[in-house]
Amino acid sequence: MTTTSEPTLTHRERVRAAGLSGDYWYPAMWSKDLQKGDVKEVVFWKQSIAVFRDEEGRVQAIEDRCPHRNIKLSLGEVKGCGVQCPYHGWVFNGEGRCTDIPHEVRTKNKPDIRVGNFPVAEKYGIVWIFPGDRSKATLSALPQLDPIDAGWTTIPVDFVNKCHHSMIVENVCDFYHEFLHRDYRPFHKAKLLSVEATKDAIEVSYETTLGGGPFVKYFADTGSVNLSQIKLWYQYPFQRSDIDGKYLHWLFLRPIDERTTHVFYLFTFKSFKLPFTNFTLPKALIAPLIKLTSKIYVLPVLAQDNWIMAEEQLGHDVHGGRPVYEFNPFVVKAQQLTLRKWEEYQASLAQRLQNKRGSPTVVETLLEA
User: Fold this and answer.
1) Same domain, 122 and 209
2) Nearest in space to 79 (alpha carbons), one of 43, 106, 96, 54
3) 7 inside domain
4) Is the per-residue pLDDT at 280 higher than 70?
5) 350 plus 272 within the same structural domain
6) Has residue 227 been placed in a domain?
7) What contacts 24+ positions apart, CB below 8 Å, involve 217-226?
8) 362, 39 in Cβ contact below 8 A?
9) Is residue 194 domain-shared with residue 111, that is, in the same domain?
10) DSSP character for 142?
């Protein structure tokens, strides 16, 4: 009798199946999109979380499941400092404890009913969640974005990309795809200068011509900003870049599943110049310029990336097991980092399960750890 074994996955297939470690802070949504009394579903790697702002204005995050009939709590409504299930009206507070059952319960000793809860924070106009081991939440600091704290002009942008999160990091740090953006020319004639990897980060630098496209080139402050080089980092699990300390961006990713990722960009600018002069634009004029720049330049460029990455995902779904040719050493190192961190996180989950034997389910065990 012969048996067939499971096919061995290629390195790239393993990378494209990997999630991101839950032991970091991830963006849930913009703070402005969660008003007092709102409750919304946020998914981190196939796990549904109910994020709500209670009637006192505090943001809370709990497992998106009523343990009575497994209805999503995000379908309910905020009541006081908790969220109420739309089916039987059970109320759960921000700690995940059931605080009210508004109908007769025929039991002498009502059990202590709970669902998991998650650490939350608000900073830089973003609601952040910590979906992993909550004991590590205080050890993993929120990103420190000094230019935003200093009041630099910022463009916030978010998308839901139809691709794996690793494709996004590879795209943003690979300047050899300039052909895709040939009509906008955000970078041109890129030459890779260096790729340096540390334990949990990769730095890559390019020599290139930046901001050479229509419209933007007239406002770029070429007199005080060196637009011939850029440094980028995959600083797991987020990505950032720096142009001469004057133009910076951060990219925060929240993986939803193997083919869907919610991304949040923060583009920051120290100054713009008045076209055809060497004078810096007054701060009062920068805000409307930023809105115009975002509409006619930033968003179209990102839309091209989103389109091509969705196509890359479709190509991977069909041809993922076939050999590929990769010439950018950053991509190779980024894939290695992504895979290593995921395997480390999986090992930590297994250890937490072992330490919590006897819990009813795997999900409850992990959420209450």
Assistant:
1) no
2) 54
3) no
4) no
5) no
6) yes
7) 218/275, 218/276, 219/272, 219/273, 219/275, 219/281, 219/289, 219/293, 220/272, 220/273, 221/246, 221/271, 221/272, 221/273, 221/280, 222/273, 223/273, 223/278, 224/271, 225/271
8) no
9) no
10) P
Q: How far apart are the first and last CA of the chain?
A: 45
Domain span at residue 196 reads 146-324
The SS3 of residue 322 is: coil
Q: 96: left (phi > 0), else alpha (psi -120 to 50), else beta?
A: left
Q: With respect to residue 4, please indicate whether it lies within any of the assigned structural domains.
A: no
C-alpha–C-alpha distance, residues 316 and 348, integer Å: 29
Same domain as 174, residue 113: no
CB 51 within 8 A of CB 28: yes
User: How confident is the model over 310-342, as pLDDT tens digits?
Assistant: 999 999 999 999 988 999 999 999 999 999 999
Overall domain count for the chain:
3
Residues 121 and 181 in one domain: no
d(CA 5, CA 11): 18
Average pLDDT over residues 137-143: 91
One-letter amino acid for residue 369 of the chain: A
In the chain, the percentage of residues whose pLDDT exceeds 90 is 69
